[in-house]
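User: Hi! I'm working on a homework problem where we have to compare a predicted structure to a textbook description. Could you give me the structure for the chain below?
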Amino acid sequence: MRLKYSFMSIKEQKQIHESTLSLLNSTGVMVHSEKAHDIFKHHGARSDGKKIFIPEHLIEDALMSVPHSFTLDNGRRRVSIGKGPTCFMPPYGATYVRKNRQKTAATVIDFENFSKLSHMNHLINMSNPYIVEPGDISINLRERYKMVMSLACSDKPGFSITQNGQTAIDSIHFSRDFFSLSDQYHSLGNVNISSPLIIGKNTGDVIVAHAHENQPLMIACGSGLSGLTAPPTLASNFLLNNAAVISGITLSQLVTPGLPVIFGFPLFGTDPIHANVSCGHPSTGLFTMAAADMGRFYQLPVRSGGVFTDSEALNYRSGFESSLNLFSCLFSDVDCIMHTMGMEESLQTLNYHKFIMDEILYESLSTYLKGFEINDVSLMLDEIENSGCEGNYISMTNLKLIRKFYKLWPFPDDEDALLSQTQKIIDERLAQYRYPDYDRDQLKLLDTYFPELKFLRGEKC
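Assistant: Happy to help. Predicted C-alpha cells:
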C-alpha cells in the first residue's frame, strides 16, 4: 500500500513535445555564445544574426543520444543519477544566511559551516562550491576559494565552477588532478538557459566546455515570470521552459553525443503584485510533477527543486510551502533534488535552523509516501485473537514496534526553544566535524591553487 503518482497524460506529453519542436524550429533561440552559435550552424541549423532555428531532426537525435542514467565517481565516493535512490544535492546560491532570527550577508565562515554540515548530513550526496555566496572575499579570488574549500571540506562528488567556459575547464581539471582521476564522470555542471529563449554567452561556453571535457551537465531554465518573461498561463510557461531546456540539451549532444545531461526544471510561480518569483506558490509543485512526467517521456534524469518557500521566518507558511514542494519532488520520484535543506525567502537566504529541521521534514514525508504493508505478518491476527476483546498489548516487543512505526516530531513548539535546540545540534555537528583524510600531495595541490588558505601549515586541515 503506497501513494501512486499520475499527472500528465501521454497525449499531453506529446503535445508539449510537438509544440517544443515547433517553437525551436520556427521561433528559434537567441545564442550569444559564438562557440555555441557556430556549433549549431555547423550541424545545419539556420541562423538569423544571433538567432538559431533548430530543425526537428537535430532535437530528436539529441534526445535519443542522452543516456538514461550515469554515475559520478571521484575515486572516493560515487552517486548514481537516473537509477536507484534519489540524489540529494545541497543548497545552491543563497547570498544571505539567517541564524537566531538575524539575517546577514553570507561570509566565508558561513560557506565553510554549511559545507561541513552538508558533508556530515546523511541525506545529502554531493558537495557544492555554490552552497552560499561568500560576499566578504573579493570577486577575483571568490571562484577559486569556493572550488578549493568545497573540495577541502568534503570528498563527496561535486559541481564545477560555471562562471564561464574557462572556469568550468579549470575546475574540472583541478578536480581531476586532485583525485587522480582518468576518464570517469566526476564534476557536474549546472547552467540555466535564460527566459524566454536565450542561451547567454557564458551559459553556451560552459555547455561546450563540459561537452568537450566529457563531464555531465544539469541544464535548466531561469524561471520565466508569467506576464513578464513568460506568457501568463501555467501551460504556456511550462512549454517555454521546456523548449529552453531542450535547446541546451541539443547543443550538448551536438558537441559530444552521449554526454550525460540532467533535465533541470526549477520553474516557479509568480507574485503578480510585486512582479517577483513566488517559490512557495502551489504552481511550483505542479511544475515539478509535470517536469517529472516530461523527463520520463524523454527518458532523461530529472532534477527538481526542494524545500522552497517565500517565507522570511520559521512559521506556518515556511513549513507549509516547504512541505508542499518537497512532497511534489518525492511523490513524483524525481532523480535528483537541489536545495534539499534550509532554503527560504525565495532562494535568497539559507537558514541554519531550517537546515536541521528540513531533515525531519524529509523523513516525515518519506515515511508518509511509503505507506504501510498489509500482509500476514503485519496484520498480527494471532496477537489480536490472543488479546481478545478486553486484553492489552503491553510488551517490550510491541513497545519496540510502536517506536519503529510512530516516530514523533522531535522539536518543541516554542520558537525560542526550537532555535536553541537546533543551534545545539549545529554546534555539536560542527564540533564533531573532521576534514577528509587527504594525503600530502592533495594538500599541497590545495595550497598551490589557493595559497591564502595555507593548508600545509595546519590552519585548515
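For your comparison, note the following. The chain is about 45% helix and 15% strand. The mean pLDDT is 93. Good luck with the assignment!
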